[in-house]
Amino acid sequence: MNTTNVFSKLLTADTRLVISQGGTSSSKTYSTLQLLFLIAFKKQGTHISIVSETLPHLKRGAMRDFFNIIKKEGIYTEKNHNKSGNIYHVGDSMIEFFSADNGDKVRGARRDYLFINECNNVSFETYNQLEVRTKNQIYLDYNPSHEFWVHEYLLKKEIEHTFIKSTYKDNPYLDANIVKSIESRRYTDLNWWRVFGEGELGFSESLIFTHWRQTKNIPEGNVAYGLDFGYNHPTALIKVTENDGRFYAEQLIYESHLTNQQLIERLKQLNINRSAEIFADYSRPESIREIYLAGFNIKDANKDVKKGIDSVKSKDLYIHEGSIDLIKELRSYSWKKDRNEKLLEEPVKTLDDGCDALRYCIHTWKEPQITFMKPKITTFGKRNTYT
Fold first, then answer.
1. What pLDDT score does 372 carry?
2. Inter-axis angle of helices 305-313 and 353-366, nearest 10
C-alpha cells in the first residue's frame, strides 16, 4: 500500500482529536481512510464511523475512495459489503458510512473511531453529538476556505489535539498534469492559491454566493435550464425551478469529453420537455444549432457576468443535495483579488462550469434578450441570430 507523509503523521498521532487541514489533492482524506482500514484489520471487533454532510457527498467522496483503496490492494470481498446499509466488515470489525443529516445515526449507537470528512460542511451540534458517542480517536479533515467551529472551539481552546497541515506537495503519487494544473493557479487568484495550493486559511469575504442552502426535495414550478459547453472542462447542465419566489437548482449533467451527439443523447435520456427553454453559451453556435435541430428549445444565454451574479442573488437559492459538483463550485466560486488583496468585480475562472450554467439560466430568464432559434445561423456582432 503506497502511503504519504500525511499517513505517517496520522499513524503516529496519539491524541484523541486529530485535525487535518489541507489543500486540494494533499491525500488527507485518502490517508485517513487507509489508516482506518488498518485499524479495523489489526484491532478486531472495532466499530468505525465515517461521516460527511449528505449521502450523495459521501458516495462521491470518502466512500468511493475507501472502496478504491481496498479494491486496488486486492482485499475487497463482496460478501463483506452490506451495500444497502453502507457497511463493510473487516473480520469482526465494522466500518459504517452515514451522513450528518441522518439524525437517527448521529444520535444513535456508540463507536470506537470517528472520521468526519470535510467537517466544515457539518454543524458543530452534529460534531458534538458524534463526539460524545466516540470512545477512542476522532479524525477531522477540511479545506480551509474560511473559519468555522474547528477554529473557534477546537484549535483556539485548550483542547488537546494533533494538527496536521498538508498540501499537494505531500502527495508524491499525484499525476504531473494535476500538479501543473494546481500550480498554474498560483497567480490567478491569491485566495484560491492560499486555500487549495498552500493549505492556509482563506478569506471568506471573497466568496460570491453565500445565500444558498442544500435541500433534499425540489418542488414543482416553472422550469428552465442553463448549459455551459465544455470538452476538457465539464459540460454542465443545470435545471432551475422557480417556486414561491425561490430558485431551486439541480445538476443534471457534469461531464467532460462529451461530443454534441452524446450531449443530445443525454438530453433525450433526461426526458427534457422539448418546449422547455435551455439557455446556452453562444460562443458555441455550431453546438447550439445541432441541439436545436434535434428538437430542443435552446437559446443564446445572456452572459453578462456581474448582472448575472446579481440575478442569482436576487432570490433565495436552494441546491439539491445530489448536485455534488455544483455544490463544490459554489463553495469556492470567488471574486478575484489583486496583489494588494483588493476584491475585483470579476470571478476567478476556475471551477465555474456549473456556476456559469446556473447564471446563464437565471439571468436570461429574468432579462430575456434572446431570439428563438431557426436552423440557419448567421453572425451579427458578438451574438448569434438564427434566420
1. 37
2. 80
Distance CA 140, CA 120 (A): 9
pTM for the model stands at: 0.71
Q: What is the DSSP letter of 252?
A: E
| CATH 3.90.1150.10, domain 5-197, yes or no | no
CA 386 to chain centre: 37
How confident is residue 262, by pLDDT bands cut at 50, 70 and 90? Answer: very high
pLDDT above 80 (res 376): no
pLDDT over 70 percentage in the chain:
93
CATH number of 212-386: 3.30.420.280
At residue 382, the pLDDT reads: 40
Instruction: Burial-class residue 313 by CB neighbours within 10 Å (0-12, 13-18, 19+).
Output: middle
Q: Which residue has the cell 458543530?
A: 124
The domain ranges of the chain are 5-197, 212-386
Query: Is residue 286 within a helix (H) or strand (E), and if so which, with residue range?
Result: helix 285-293
Q: Is 277:299 a contact under the CB 8 Å cutoff?
A: yes
Q: Enumerate residues 6+ apart whose C-beta is below 8 A from 282.
A: 288, 300, 301, 303, 383, 384
